[in-house]
Specification:
This protein is an alpha/beta fold. It has a single domain, classed as Aldolase class I (TIM Barrel, Alpha-Beta Barrel), CATH 3.20.20. The protein is built from 11 helices and 14 strands. The strands form 2 sheets. It has a 12-stranded mixed beta sheet. A two-stranded antiparallel ribbon has the order 1-2. Helix 1 runs parallel beside helix 2, helix 1 packs across helix 10 and helix 3 packs parallel to helix 5. It is globular and about 60 Å long. Bound molecules: S-adenosylmethionine and iron/sulfur cluster (SF4). The site of S-adenosylmethionine has 20 residues, from strand 5, strand 7 and helix 11.
């Protein structure tokens, strides 16, 4: 098992497949992009599958989510999914993507065994999309969502970050639209993980703001705590259910005490938290010929050092060097 000194057990592994991206969301990356990881530093497909195999067979990992950067940019994605879903015990697999290119690959991903997708979509307005992501690809994301639904990568979830003055007024419209299309909508509070270090608490849309806006048009009833489990999203039944809307309030209502995650970056570093300032190098161990037991030991040791919380409210909080896109969101 992956257990920490606070008794939390990690069963959910987030794997970043690349730090590159074809969008430039303002809350994530600067317009010019970033200094991408060098190819030799990236884990190969075989190395990724081996590490996930160790996590599943020896460390109790039950769920694997592929992310990035933009994971659809990883050429070997379908093959990786195929090999991971053939592992014993078979983990539940999902993908977090901006949806560009999903139209082309959704069926192949389903065929390879992928269970679900989360598609990030912040706005229903193509012009706002262009301002927010600095790319004119709104239609591609909508096509990707539809393809995921048609391929059976369900429930299709939509992740939305609201930004003041840009899309903050769209919360009720996004909910009505998601209900109509059968997508599960989850709002995510903007976190201090942008590469530009421009995040300001005063400049973010809070869970409270989002719920107030939604209640102008919908009746929301909170879901019970037992139904939430270790899920980061708090959920509300909309108009009596069965549809539920989620809010991930990482900043204003952190859920660190119930965290069940461990993370692997595209260059083979284990991180115990998005906000961790330390990493454990598994790539070096892999490439120096360490056996599976040694890799598992290093991973357990990393988990043992997991901090109690992200510490966003702590005056000593320091934003991690790696931005979200290089950690894997
Ligand atoms: N490129 C893929 C995508 O956008 O879905 C996967 C990686 S992206 C880093 C994963 C999720 O993190 C997206 O839903 C995105 O909106 C979210 N995200 C990125 N930067 C964020 C930030 N500063 N605060 C909160 N969420 C953020
Ligand atoms: Fe790319 Fe996702 Fe970051 Fe947007 S949030 S720039 S799609 S990695």
């Amino acid at each position: 098992m992956l257990i920490d000194t606070y008794g939390r057990v990690a069963t959910d592994l987030r794997v970043s497949l690349t730090d590159r991206c074809n969008l430039r969301c303002t809350y994530c990356m600067p317009e010019e992009g970033l200094q991408w990881l060098a190819k030799p530093d990236l884990l190969t497909d075989d190395e990724i599958v081996r590490l996930i195999g160790i996590a599943v067979a020896s460390l109790g990992i039950e769920e694997v989510r592929f992310t990035g950067g933009e994971p659809l940019l990883r050429p070997g994605l379908v093959g990786i999914v195929e090999r991971v879903t053939a592992l014993e015990p078979r983990p539940v697999t999902s993908l977090t993507t901006n949806g560009i290119g999903l139209k082309r690959t959704a069926a192949a991903l389903k065929e390879a065994g992928l269970d679900r997708v989360n598609v990030s979509l912040d706005t229903l307005r193509p012009d706002v999309f262009k301002t927010l992501t600095r790319r004119d690809r709104h239609g591609d994301v909508l096509d990707g969502l539809r393809a995921a639904q048609d391929a059976g990568l369900t429930p299709v979830k939509v992740n939305t970050v609201l930004m003041p003055g840009l899309n903050a007024d769209e919360a009720p419209d996004l909910l009505a639209w998601s209900m109509e299309h059968g997508y599960e909508l989850r709002f995510i509070e903007q976190m201090p993980l942008d590469a530009q270090h421009g995040w300001k608490r005063e400049g973010m849309v809070t869970a409270g703001d989002i719920l107030t806006a939604l209640r102008t048009r919908f009746d929301l009833t909170p879901e019970g705590a037992e139904e939430r489990g270790s899920a980061p999203a708090e959920r509300w039944l909309v108009n009596g259910g069965p549809y539920r809307v989620g809010v991930i309030a990482s900043v204003t209502r952190p859920f660190c005490a119930a965290c069940d995650r461990t993370r692997l970056t595209a260059d083979g570093q284990v991180r115990t938290c998005l906000f961790a300032t330390e990493e454990t190098d598994l790539r070096g161990a892999l490439r120096s010929g360490a056996p599976d037991e040694e890799i598992a030991r290093l991973w357990r040791q990393a988990m043992w050092g997991k901090k109690a919380g992200a510490g966003l409210d702590d005056p000593s909080f320091v934003q991690p060097d790696r931005p979200m896109s290089a950690i894997g969101g």
